[in-house]
């Protein structure tokens, strides 16, 4: 038996600014000229056991040269991987995230050519377009991404347990 209404994001925190009806940023990297955002829109199919924890999202890229939007589907494991990627970025190393899907995202904490962090978005599976964004980010940008990840996890917590491959059950 479900403890929550399947149409409502359980655990939503009104104090975080995340609105399950309009979404919440998982990633928000921007400077005065360009931005890279990954916005979580909500659950794919709330209340449908095997799809309940899958999140619909979109990549939003804006610069003076290009503007684009790509749909993305995220699993709880993708959120876990993003958390580990933030730890790698904090150590000064480049990360690749969502490599198995489209789009692929690479973040370099410092790019010597540009003198700033960079984000590379590659949509090789659909549009065959890649965009590299150098972003002049302020101190603390990695900690801000950690805060956004925690906000998304509070707004859409994992409510489905997979005790074995192909077996799904509600967490109690």
TrEMBL record:
Organism domain of life: Bacteria
Protein name: Uncharacterized protein
Region of interest: Disordered: 1-26
UniProt-listed InterPro entries: DUF5959
Segments of skewed composition (Low complexity): 7-25
